[in-house]
Design a protein that fits this description.
The protein has 386 residues and is α+β, with helices and mostly antiparallel strands. The chain folds into 4 domains: 99 residues, NusA, N-terminal domain (N Utilization Substance Protein A, Chain:P, domain 4, 2-Layer Sandwich), CATH 3.30.1480.10; 67 residues, Nucleic acid-binding proteins (OB fold (Dihydrolipoamide Acetyltransferase, E2P), Beta Barrel); 65 residues, GMP Synthetase, Chain A, domain 3 (2-Layer Sandwich); 67 residues, no CATH class. Helix content is 43%, strand content 23%. The strands form 4 sheets. A 5-stranded mixed beta barrel has the order 4-5-6-8-7. A 3-stranded antiparallel β-sheet has the order 1-2-3, with helices on one face. It is elongated. The N and C termini lie far apart (149 Å).
Length: 386
């Protein structure tokens, strides 16, 4: 006598399938295979390949066939119903997980607010809403400490195959987190009127962000900094003040771009070797440490931004030296004219004495200037006495 399932069960199946977005035909096919597996469990000696199951979607009748012979055992309807229930619940869980992963796949590259749930070895497990994100050591900020229930913003990096199932990988060390935070804090970046051209980052220490705009009247750097620095400070506080952020305006000219990328150093002269992709940078000695940065950090990030290998050399402040030279030369010219009437007492000072080579020779030029002034005064005194 065939085992009969109540039709209400099938109605419930359809209702659950519609609510959870599971195709009933897929579930029914899976239930058939599960019923055959359940029969095999009670009859371990049979060749399962020779057995098939049928399940009527309207009446819920389940039958086991060996080739063309109905071998459904008495009371098998209860076993079939229990098996169908388990399969349906499993399918619903799988479908829900697929839907969640599909939702997060669309959001890859964005930032979400999360909370630290637990630690799994070196990995940090973060609650990101409907799913749990895994933050491996490579995506953690080295000098940042994490604790349970800590709230933090993370970047949805990717979905990858884990040991048992697919995992949502989140990051605190990626450039995408910086870009997402700027989109969140700066309306001009979110709207697209200010574009982030490049990001170079040493997570937990320093970050350089290059911004540009093609709309007149908008200051890209000022927009990102905000009034009294309120916008960029909000981003820095997201990292607990550990990571400093330099905002640089995009420059079409390579030399100007390289000079800007070495901020906060100023008074920079750049020479570019396009063939070898090398940029030689000359910086005033008092700015040299700023240009290089702690353990070469500043120049390393600037090299990442520009794509050039940057070599830095120091030299004295050129502008001050040029001003000193011009003043001395003007003084020489005026005093040489006055000295003609003093019967040769004032010696002519050649402009060659003022060397563009720094420091020692500039000092020599100052001595020459003092000497000329003294001779001029002596000349004026002799004329007055006459």
């Amino acid at each position: 006598m065939p085992a009969v399932q109540r039709s209400e069960f099938m109605l419930a199946l359809n209702q659950v399938a519609n609510e959870r977005g599971v195709d009933p035909s897929v579930v029914l096919e899976t239930v058939k295979n599960a019923i055959v597996a359940a029969y095999r469990k009670d009859h371990p000696t049979v060749e399962i390949e020779e057995y098939t199951a049928t399940l009527d979607a309207n009446t819920g009748e389940a039958h086991i066939f060996h080739k063309d012979t109905d071998v459904t055992p008495p009371g098998f309807g209860r076993i079939a119903a229990q098996t169908a229930k388990q399969v349906i619940l499993q399918k619903i869980r799988e479908k829900e997980k697929e839907a969640i992963l599909s939702d997060y796949k669309v959001r890859i590259g964005t930032i979400v607010n999360g909370m630290v749930l637990r630690f799994a070895g070196p990995n940090v497990i973060v609650d990101i809403g409907k799913a749990e994100g895994v933050m491996p050591p490579s995506e953690q900020i080295p000098n940042e400490k994490y604790h349970l229930n800590q709230r933090l913003a993370v970047n949805l990096l990717e979905i990858r195959e884990g040991a048992r199932e697919e995992e949502v990988i989140v990051s605190r060390a990626s450039n995408g987190l910086i870009e997402g935070l700027f989109k969140r804090e700066v309306p001009e970046v979110a709207q697209g009127s200010v574009v982030i051209k490049a990001i170079a980052r040493d997570p937990g220490n320093r970050c350089k962000v290059v911004v540009a705009t093609n709309q007149p009247g908008i200051d890209p750097v000022g927009s990102c900094v905000g009034q009294k620095g309120v916008r960029v400070q909000a981003i820095i506080q997201e990292f607990g003040g550990l990571e400093k952020i330099d905002i640089i305006q995009w420059q079409l000219d390579s030399k100007a771009y390289i000079a800007a990328s070495l901020s906060p150093a100023k008074n920079i002269r750049v020479e570019i070797n396009e063939k070898e992709n090398i940029a030689r940078v000359f910086v005033a000695k008092d700015e040299l440490s700023l240009a290089i940065g702690k353990e070469g950090q500043n120049v390393r990030l600037a090299s990442k931004l520009t794509g050039y290998r940057i070599e830095i050399e120091g030299f004295p402040d050129a502008e001050v030296l040029e001003d000193t030279q011009e003043e001395v030369q003007e003084e020489i010219a005026s005093n040489a004219t006055d000295a003609k009437g003093t019967e040769g007492k004032a010696k002519e000072v050649k402009t060659d004495d003022v060397s563009t080579q720094p420091a020692a020779k500039a000092k020599k030029a100052k001595k020459a200037k003092k000497k000329i002034q003294k001779e001029k005064n002596d000349s004026e005194n002799s004329e007055n006495s006459v």
